[in-house]
């Protein structure tokens, strides 16, 4: 699979340069004005899923974030620390410049003018988002009873990955040194995941693999990193600039085929993506 941009995509980028990249939260049946022509629309990589804490506040442009995502072109993407306005722009960049068309569901857990802009009396939504090449249904956005030092929650949808229906969760747990809060949060999350035979759980858990607060999730699912287990044994690939494993793709009823961690110049968390097999 070749992920570089060709001449046609560069031509498409030139056409849309300077346009305002604020579009609908999900693609319609037809490409919007300024989009690439149909022959330049790319396919996502089947069975590939990705999680990425895009870092907020960070000095990163949404065009750069979209380019990092387009390099791997997953079917499903879970973003954390995501402003609704930023995700809209990322989705539009992916479609108009890279030819990748995604539906989007948002899971804001707080309204934050400092992080997400807007007006002081009407601040932007901040939390999680899921992008999926296939339509999503049965959206549930849950705020944890105790977020710790900042409101936290999970977003869940049903979508199609590799031609199979699956429940996808995207979460961001409480910040470091808040172990007891994360334990309560994983209790809520695990109870929801346990209702599904096939589930993908994406997110920034702010905890290393052998942290006690992750035990409930490990009891239900496996991480796509084959070296990672709920014990100090193993050599987990770090997923942050400070060399900790905080970001996970947990699978329930699905087998991982490949796992990759790629640093990004635009976030303090690395991009984590995995290719999946059958049950």
What does this protein structure show overall?
The protein is α+β, with helices and mostly antiparallel strands. The model is unreliable at 1-33 (pLDDT under 50). The radius of gyration is 18 Å and the shape is globular. α2 packs across α3. The protein is built from 6 helices and 14 strands. The strands form 3 sheets. It has a 6-stranded mixed sheet. The chain has a 6-stranded mixed sheet with strand order 7-8-9-10-12-11, with helices on one face.
Features of the shown structure:
279 residues; alpha+beta; 20% helix; disordered N terminus
Task: Describe the SSE topology.
Elements: H1 7-16, E1 45-53, H2 62-70, E2 74-83, H3 84-96, E3 103-111, H4 113-116, E4 118-119, E5 122-123, E6 125-132, E7 137-143, E8 153-161, E9 164-172, H5 179-193, E10 199-204, H6 215-218, E11 222-223, E12 247-252, E13 256-262, E14 271-276
Parallel strand pairs: 1-2, 9-10
Antiparallel strand pairs: 1-14, 2-6, 3-6, 4-5, 7-8, 8-9, 10-12, 11-12, 13-14
Helix pairs in contact: 2-3
